[in-house]
């Protein structure tokens, strides 16, 4: 029996070992990995082989330029690949986590992904000043911040589409930040796409917690993911972690010791910059926490 040739597609949805793979004709097919290892993520390009039906086998994952992880207390899991831009959604209310923003920025810089912080619900002026003040350290570190109200569809498109055009952007945020409203403003038929992915995966309502890729009506792609609680950073070594802090960059290489950890060593340029007010204490404290957590993880 002749073997069918492989075709290239892109993973647009994942549910367990079920992959929704979109081919060049725009159709989404249910596919499975060959063997026990399932190492593809939403955004990956893959080679798929079909055997005369609608289901296919993923024969090969093509090289990716980056990969992002999410984690909880139990494990770290890959969830998005080949991302050009991170849209990190926060809101004036409810309160967002500075710690999670900081970790997301470290992960993005380590993966060479540009980031924009989207401050949603900017029309709620009574809490806008406080939100701006809390985001000031990230703005000072060079992260662009776009203020908008996702309920204003025209405003949302005007402020964000120019950044996403021709790119794959990842929409990320904690629950309650208005991420779904923002998605619906950018992708009016997102619900229809979600249903199509669900049918392709035979996963029904359970795919509401899945990561998915949508095509923007104008140009570019948007990967939406469930509200996150933590970022997977255990795969990063100390060099990648220090490189995740943009404000460290002007001082790296100026320490007295070549293997300086920037925590306690004499002649440390990073500690001197913190003492001089050029690095925020809370940002350096996050750096120390991430290093300590990764060191503790390696001991187990």
Provide an overview of this structure.
The chain is built from eight helices and 13 strands. The strands form three sheets. A six-stranded mixed sheet has the order 10-9-8-11-13-12, sandwiched between helices. Strands 1-2-3-5-4 form a five-stranded mixed β-barrel. The protein has a two-stranded antiparallel ribbon with strand order 6-7. It is of the alpha/beta class. It starts with 5 loop residues before the first strand and ends with a helix. The relative contact order is 0.13. It folds into three domains: 56 residues, OB fold (Dihydrolipoamide Acetyltransferase, E2P); 158 residues, P-loop containing nucleotide triphosphate hydrolases (Rossmann fold, 3-Layer(aba) Sandwich), CATH 3.40.50; 61 residues, Ribonucleotide Reductase Protein R1, domain 1 (Orthogonal Bundle), CATH 1.10.40. It is 31% helix and 25% strand. The protein is globular. The longest helix has 18 residues.
């Amino acid at each position: 029996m002749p073997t069918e040739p492989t075709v290239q597609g892109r993973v647009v949805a994942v549910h367990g070992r079920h992959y929704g793979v979109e081919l060049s004709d725009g159709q989404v097919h249910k596919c499975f990995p060959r063997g026990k290892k399932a190492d593809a993520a939403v955004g990956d390009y893959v080679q798929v082989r079909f055997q005369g039906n609608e289901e296919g086998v993923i024969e090969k994952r093509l090289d990716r330029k980056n990969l992002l992880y999410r984690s909880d207390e139990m494990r770290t899991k890959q969830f998005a690949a080949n991302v050009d831009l991170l849209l990190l959604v926060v809101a004036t209310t409810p309160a967002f986590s500075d710690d999670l923003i900081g970790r997301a920025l470290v992960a993005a810089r380590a993966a060479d992904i540009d980031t924009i912080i989207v401050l949603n619900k900017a029309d709620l002026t009574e809490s806008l000043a406080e939100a701006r003040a809390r985001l000031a350290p990230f703005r000072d570190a060079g992260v662009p911040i776009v203020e908008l109200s996702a309920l204003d569809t025209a405003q949302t498109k005007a402020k964000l589409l120019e950044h996403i055009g021709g790119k794959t952007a990842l929409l990320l945020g904690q629950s309650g930040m208005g991420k779904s409203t923002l998605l619906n403003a950018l992708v009016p038929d997102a619900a229809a796409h979600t249903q199509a992915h669900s049918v392709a995966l035979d996963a029904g309502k359970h795919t509401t917690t899945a990561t998915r890729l949508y095509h923007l009506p104008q140009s570019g792609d948007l990967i939406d993911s469930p509200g996150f609680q933590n970022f997977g950073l255990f795969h990063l070594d100390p060099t990648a972690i220090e490189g995740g802090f943009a404000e460290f960059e002007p001082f790296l290489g100026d320490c007295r010791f070549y293997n300086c950890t920037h925590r306690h060593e004499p002649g440390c340029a990073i500690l001197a910059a913190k003492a001089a007010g050029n690095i925020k204490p809370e940002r350096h404290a996050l750096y120390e926490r991430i290093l300590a957590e990764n060191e503790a993880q390696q001991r187990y």
